[in-house]
Design a protein that fits this description.
Blueprint (H helix, E strand, L loop, with lengths): L2 E5 L2 E3 L5 E8 L4 E10 L6 E6 L5 E3 L7 E6 L4 E6 L8 E11 L2 E6 L3 E5 L2
Parallel strand pairs: 2-11
Antiparallel strand pairs: 1-3, 3-8, 4-5, 4-9, 5-6, 7-8, 9-10, 9-11
Amino acid sequence: QVQLVESGGGLVQPGGSLGLSCGASGKFLSINDMAWYRQAPGNQRELVATITSFGDTKYADSVKGRFTISRDNAKKTVFLQMNSLKPEDSAVYYCNARILVLPTWRDYWGQGTQVTVSS
């Protein structure tokens, strides 16, 4: 069974930094795009950043220049480095990956990790 397990959330002061990681485990053939989403109370889940298997990245306008997504294909892990954090970045962060489990590609989600930016 394929699982995505996240770690790294917590409480940080405004202007601070936090790093998230998400590793894939289980039986599968390949991982395509990986991404981070977030959802604040009362809001819809929104896309934060994506990264292809080749390392091409895209970011939401609200996090450009502050967040960096990266991945280690050998370790089947995606990372999100968050700098200059703002209170509005507070949310539950979810990782997402498109994974090949024969015979099809499927989207998998992590369990979510809370990020709270507050003084």
